[in-house]
Structure formats: C-alpha cells, structure tokens
Specification:
It is built from twelve helices and five strands. The chain has 234 residues and is of the alpha/beta class. It has a five-stranded mixed beta sheet with strand order 1-2-3-4-5. Pfam families: CRAL_TRIO.
C-alpha cells in the first residue's frame, strides 16, 4: 500500500530554491515556460503509446522528469521508462511500502534519514543518513535502501530542488554494519538510486567513518561513473 507513504509525505514541508536560483538553472539548461508545456505534452503523448507505462502521470511530475533530465526529452523518456518499469520488475523494493509496517518502523528506529527543509545556496537538497543502534539483529540493509527509495519518491512528489546532496554519518557504526555492504548490495543500491530514480546527485559526503569503511567507499567509487566518483568525499 502507498497510502501510508502519502500520509507521511504531507507532514514534510520543503522550501524550494529561490526564484533567482531556479531561473538561472532553467536558463542554463534551456527551459522556458513554453518549452516545458510543449515537452510535457510530447511526453504525455509518448507515454499513451507505451502499453507498459501509466497514462495518467500528472504534469508536475513530468516537468520534474524534464528538469532532472536537464531538459533532454530523450533522457526524460528513458528515465520515465526505468522509473515505472522498476515498479513491476523489482517488487521487493517498490511494493509493501507502508511506513507503519513493523519492518519499516524497525528501520526507522535504527537508521535516521534527516532532510533539511531549506536548500543550499546552489539549490541542492541535503539529506543526512545515520545509523544509531548497535544491535545488528535489527539492521536490515535492504530495508534501509527501500526507505531511501521511498524518501526520494516523496521528494519527487512534494519537493523541487536542483540536485540532492547526501551525507552519510557512520559514527557508532561497527564492523558488522560494514559487512552488510556486500558488492551485490552496493551494485543494487547504486542501480536503484542512480538509474531507476530520476533525481541527480551533487555529491556524497562520508563523515565519522571508521577505517574499515574506506574499502566500501573505494568499491563504490569503482562502481560509479568517473564524474560521480569525483563527487564522493571522505
């Protein structure tokens, strides 16, 4: 059920970037009110012809896909295809998303996702991710990834920003936490956050990391594009 997620979303109030920041960004990527209206109509028409995609996506969501695609129609089509196809092909991550479900509530008690209500001066949204429970029996890395996806879905519906900037605070994390970040898990997480979701990332900052987390960071860098790997800071 997504109803719980809807209830959860409405409690969060995000301030968009300033008008000046948005206008500057739109100018950089060539978006105007006219081009946005035209391209949204093109995307709607295209989606109606794709039997595996929904045909009732609202204009505001399509506008955000265009913005996150830097005003590229073809990139927006690709992102829309990935985003909606994943809901059918990766059910364990995109179904049963009620935040009041016991497994979801458990993760909310062992890991924190704290998003700043205001953007940076560049218009980016900052989220801090932190574990704060030493009991490894309660730590479920896949549930953590699932909640992260739910958070970004909520941002897509409720928020407008240029990019996302994520701070991972590993203070208090143990070797047992580190062991959960296997290469298959890391590959899956990166695919979900970078390929399936439309948002763009300004950077990933790792703070208070014990030395054994450095190898995880290095593995992640190796799995990222050269552009994104340069946006990882320890």
């Amino acid at each position: 059920s997504n109803s719980g997620l809807s209830n959860c979303k409405t409690m969060i109030q995000y301030e968009p970037p300033s008008t000046d920041v948005l206008e500057k960004y739109y100018q950089e990527i060539g978006i105007t009110a006219e081009s946005l209206e035209r391209d949204v109509a093109t995307l709607k028409s295209w989606m109606e012809k794709q039997p595996h995609l929904p045909d009732n996506v609202d204009n505001e969501t399509l506008e955000k896909f265009l913005i996150h695609s830097k005003n590229s129609l073809e990139r927006a089509k690709s992102k829309l295809d990935c985003y909606y196809t994943a809901r059918a092909t990766i059910p364990d991550m995109f179904h049963d998303r009620d935040p009041l479900d016991p497994s979801m509530k458990n993760i909310a008690q062992v890991a924190m996702y704290c998003t700043c209500p205001k953007t940076t001066p560049e218009g980016d949204r900052v989220t801090i991710v932190k574990t704060f429970d030493q009991d490894l029996k309660r730590f479920d890395i896949l549930a953590c990834i699932k909640i992260g996806l739910m958070m970004l879905d909520a941002h897509l519906a409720e928020d407008l920003c240029i990019k996302h900037l994520v701070v991972f605070d590993f203070e208090g994390s143990s070797l047992g936490h580190a062991a959960a970040f296997t290469i298959p898990v890391l590959k899956r997480a990166l695919q979900l956050f970078l390929d399936v979701l439309p948002q763009r990332f300004a950077g990933f900052h790792v703070v208070n990391a014990p030395s054994y987390f450095e190898s995880i960071v290095n593995i992640c860098k190796g799995l990222l594009s050269s552009k994104l790997s340069q946006r990882v800071f320890v």
